[in-house]
Amino acid sequence: MGQINSGDTAWVIVASALVLMMTPALGFFYGGMVRKKNILSTLNLSFIMVALLSIQWILYGYSLAFGADHGGIIGGLEYLGFSGVSSAPNASYAATIPQAAFALFQMMFAIITPALITGAFVERVRFKTFLVFSLLWATFVYDPVAHWVWGFGGVFRQLGALDFAGGTVVHITAGFSALAFAMVIGARKGFGSRTFEPSNIPYSLLGAALLWVGWFGFNGGSALAANGLAVNAIITTNTAAAAAGLVWMFLSWSDHKPSVLGIITGAVVGLVAITPAAGYVTPLARWSSALWPPHQLLCHSLPPEPQPG
Fold this sequence. Notes:
By secondary structure, this protein is mainly α. It contains nine helices and two strands; from the N terminus they run ααββααααααα. The chain has a two-stranded antiparallel sheet with strand order 1-2. Helix 3 packs parallel to helix 6 (167-185) and helix 7 runs parallel beside helix 9. It is globular.
């Protein structure tokens, strides 16, 4: 059993709060791009995920994702209702913080992931349908994939997959699910024949700004310690967002004016792109095994480096 470190624990708690903030921030980011009559409903699609997925995670989601491995596919049921999730650390995931802090941090990832999908169908889904979809999706998609990649004994983890803060578990699952959803419901009415203009770009700007700040917890917190790895993850995260925002600004510049929507979209794209590698690379995108601490991290320890000769 590991020794609890108060600094590490405090940082993970703060990072959890930052990631929680990202879900309503995502609602503002999406809400500013829809028609005025649908802003409130779009905001609610993100906000309700905080309530729904918090309960799902406590009841059984955490257990399915991080419980004892069953064939590399799914976790066990020993943590149902957070039974056994205590102030003692679980060295399989984080040796210097309480398991409860680790579970709390992971809860915030489970909350925001289905909210990401809403961008594919805002204005075109019934609220009841969305609730049922989100609950089933979290249970049968997010929880198993989280176990595959991050769970001790998970099939992808055993194969050496590296996902520092959710490129696979969060963004790939949400992205492909959003694509599938959009393909099923088809193009929105009027697509191609009329223009759909964003109704409140200041809302989107506010959402993007809060996402940028929250992402420091998303990526930096994935170090699960207040150390150099967390600092590096935050620096690479900020660098990626800044670089992508600048590039998109120039690409979207028209009529001698920069596009605010282009800038904030670029920044968010940069944040997404750096997420799986934030702890593995330097600000100039060079691989750096020196960044890794000797203890077990959330994602994986690096594969052994080849020996000379």
